[in-house]
Structures are given as C-alpha cells and as structure tokens.
Amino acid sequence: MSRRLGCGCLVGCAGPLIAFIILCGAVGILAGSCAVAAEPALPPPAAISGIPPAYLVLYEQAGQRFGLQWQVLAGVGQVETQHGRLDADCAPNFAGARGPMQFLPSTFARAATLAGIANPDICNPADAIPAAAALLAADGAPTNWHAALLHYNPNPAYPDEVMTWANSYVMAVQVVWPLDGTITQGFGPTSVTLEPPLVYEGKSYPHFHTGIDIAAPLGTPVRAIAGGQVVFAGRDTSGAVVVEIEHLPNVVSLYGHLQDPPAVKVGDAVVTGEVLGDVGVTGVTTGPHLHFAIYEAGVPVDPLTVLPPKG
C-alpha cells in the first residue's frame, strides 16, 4: 500500500466535497444506486430538499433501473434546468435543446428508444429523466462518468459542475464520524518532521499530514464513515494495521493504526457506521489514536470538509 500514515501528534496523543462519496449500504454501492440502500431514515436535508419531490422520485427510479447513482442524475437536472425550474415553458434554448434535461430532439429520440419509452414527451420529466439515464448508461456510466457526461454535454467544465452538485446530494444523506475523540493533529502542512513531503495543490511542502489524527482510548471501535467496499485490510509498509474503503471508483477513506486483526477483510461490503476495527498503536505512533484520511484519485482531501460539523 502506497499511502503513508501520519506518525501521530506532538502533544498527548493518547491519541469543493470534492470526493464523490456514495453513502449507500452494501447493496446500494455494489448496484450503483443509493435508491436501494438500507440506510437509516433521516430528515430531508437542505441539499435534497431543493429537489422537487416528484423529480427526486424520478431520479431515484431511473438510477435504480439503469444502475446509476441517482445523485449524478440529479446533478445533471440541476445544472441543466434546476430541476425544470428554468424550463417551465419547454422553449428551445439557443442550441435548440428543450425540456428538463435539455435534449436536442434527435438525441432525445435516441435516448427514449434506449429507455424503451413509447410516445415520449421531451417536456415531461417522467420521460426525460429515464431517457437521460439510459443515454448516460449507454455512453459509459457509471464505469466512466466523466466520459458519459462529456457525451451528454461537451463543455469541458460540465462533468465537474455536475459532480459538484452530485457531491452535495450525496453528502446530504448521511456521513458519520469514524469515532468520538479529540483531533490532535490536523490536515495539511505541519512542523512534525516525521511527516513526509508532499506537493499539494501545486505547492511543495517539506512535511504534510494527509489526514487527521483522532485520539481515543485503546480498543475504541472505529466505524465506516459511509457505505462502500473494503479494498485493503492489513499492515502497510510501516507496520500499521489499516483498512481502506472504496466508496466509488478512486474515492477511498483510510483508517490507520488499528489493532490487529481488523474486523473486516478485502472484498467485504460495509454500511455506514459498521465497525472496521479498534483503535490501536500499530505502526509509527506516539500513542493510541486513529489516523483518518480521504483520497480522491490518490490525492488527499481534508476530512473536515467531508465529515459533518460536531455540535
């Protein structure tokens, strides 16, 4: 495993989301659709409450039918017409695109055929949303969302814009902290000389901590922040016991310095809050704590931009 854990903190140590974390249960993450995930019931958060209820149902149904994350479909709907709000009269735009998902008539005809829709109506979200899902699936989603979204709209900025909205819908469902404890070392450049150098956002740092350290008593259970699949469970090159969960392709959360053995193995599907192991002192560490990190395509992300605020 190539990622290096932090050594711990200096004091005590008794211990945008730009990553697309899909907050699904085991079934949802493997099927590519949060609509079938067995997550706890939650009050509708603000990000999701911005989606009209009828549209939300259509996004979820289309995602489940075509094996796509409904949040990305909702991201397309938001970017194109704010879920129909910007296209109430279904008038063509400057390029001739129409409807809540902004199809050219010829493209809509193909997409509706892919979706098996008889007598499709480009202005009706009940037709346009599944047609969009069918077209995206035909163009490579969910395996390659970037390519599929560029086929949908060739603007180079389009995939990132859609995924930014998808992230907000994803994170609105539920994220949990991996454990309760005190943060003893934060994310970013540090004076701790044992931390490795890193080039981050174009700047070189002599020492950079790629996650956060959370102090907690030895044996404290460590939980998955969201649903996903275990892609690593064992010792890294420093000897630390580590679990990594992939929530989507190239989006991984890491839990380090666990006791041996971890509670999960590679290939296990986990749900939000599932115990992965217990706080330990394995590897290079100054005391019992969890090193927690999030990576997008191998690049570290500040976990505090992902985890919910502590009340």
Query: What is the global morphology?
Result: elongated
Rg estimate, integer Å: 21 Å
The name of the CATH superfamily of the largest domain reads Glucose Permease (Domain IIA)
Second rung of CATH, namely the architecture of the largest domain: Distorted Sandwich
- Give the count of structural domains: 2
Low-confidence stretches: 6-46
Q: Please trace the helix and strand order, writing H or E for each element.
A: HHHHHHHHEEEEEEEEEEEEEE
Annotation, overall tally of beta strands: 14
Provide an overview of this structure.
The chain has 311 residues and is α+β, with helices and mostly antiparallel strands. The protein has two domains: 1-42 and 175-311, Glucose Permease (Domain IIA); 43-173, Lysozyme (Orthogonal Bundle), CATH 1.10.530. It is built from eight helices and 14 strands. It has helices spanning 26-31, 46-49, 53-66, 70-81, 105-115, 125-138, 145-152, 158-173; strands spanning 182-185, 188-189, 198-200, 203-205, 208-209, 212-215, 221-223, 228-235, 241-248, 251-258, 269-270, 275-278, 289-296, 299-301. Strands 1, 6, 8, 9, 10, 11, 13 and 14 form an eight-stranded antiparallel sheet that branches. The protein has a two-stranded antiparallel ribbon with strand order 2-5. The chain has a two-stranded antiparallel sheet with strand order 3-4. The longest helix is centred in the middle third of the chain and has 16 residues, at 158-173.
